[in-house]
Amino acid sequence: MFDIGLLELLLIGVITLLVLGPEKIPGAVRSGAKTIYWFKRQASNAKEEINKAFDLNEVYQDSRNEEILDDVEKDKG
């Protein structure tokens, strides 16, 4: 996704250690993880609400059923 190699991760770690210091790093990592989890949860909730509002699950299931029926008809003929 980000295409970050080992050398880049090591450089980020050294810079983080220099900027924050060893005593603040666990709190910063914990805070960052909570923030990422919150964003993921919000995105999941938004996706679920959009699916409910536009009834996309039913549309997807209908299109999937049509594909299956087409496959069955091709196998018969």
Determine the structural class based on helices, strands and strand pairing. mainly alpha
How would a textbook summarize the main sheet? Answer: none
User: First CA to last CA: what distance?
Assistant: 44 Å
Computed CA radius of gyration, to the nearest angstrom: 23 Å
* Number of helices, where a helix is a run of at least 4 consecutive DSSP H or I residues: 3
Order of helices and strands: HHH
Protein model, in words:
With 77 residues, the chain is mostly helical. The chain is built from three helices and no strands. It is elongated and about 70 Å long. 86% of the residues lie in helices and 0% in strands. It has a domain at 25-76. The protein has helices at residues 6-20, 25-54, 56-76.
Key traits:
77 residues; mainly alpha; 3 helices
Question: What does this entry show, briefly?
Answer:
This protein has 77 residues and is an all-alpha fold.
Q: Helices, strands, pairings?
A:
Layout: H1 6-20, H2 25-54, H3 56-76
